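>> received
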Amino acid sequence: MIKTFRHKGLAELWSKDQTSKIDRRMHERVLERLDALDAAKMVKDMDVPGFDFHSLRGFTSPRYTVHVNGPWCITFEFSGGDATRVDFEQYH
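>> returned
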């Protein structure tokens, strides 16, 4: 289950199904990944073909990413069956 967001546009898209803070052309792909993240019981549940799931290096708390489009990714932490600090960023 998604517990917290870092990106206000993601939170808005998730709760209201619309936002002006994220390119409209990416809304469907973002929501698909957020739905999967909300349903995930374990972090490995996000290892879905096409998501390019992997862990990120250099963080004290393990942080993970799934690819959305171009350089855009959804990054998150996962603990106790919940996703926290869900963000939308270009981290490369």
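>> The CA atoms of residues 41 and 91 lie 25 Å apart.
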